[in-house]
Amino acid sequence: MSMTVRRLSRAATAGLVAAAALTAAAHSAEAADTLGSAAAGQGRYFGTAVAANHLGEADYAATLDREFSSVTPENEMKWDATEPSRGGFTFTSADRIVDHAQSQGMDVRGHTLVWHSQLPSWVGQLGASDLRTAMNDHIKGLMGHYKGEIHSWDVVNEAFQDGGSGARRSSPFQDKLGDGFIEEAFRTARAADPAAKLCYNDYNTDGVNAKSNAVYNMVKDFKSRGVPIDCVGFQSHFNSNSPVPSDYRQNLQRFADLGVDVQITELDIEGSGSAQAADYTEVVEACLAVDRCTGMTVWGVTDKYSWRSGGTPLLFDGNYDEKPAYDAVLSALGGSGDPGDPDGPGDPGDGTATCTATYTRTADWNSGYNGQVTITAGSEPISSWTATVTLPAQQSVSALWNGTPSLNGNVMTVRPSWNGTLAAGASTGFGFTVAKNGSDAAPTVGTCTAS
Ligand code: G2I
Question: What residues make up the catalytic site (predicted)?
Answer without folding.
Answer: 266
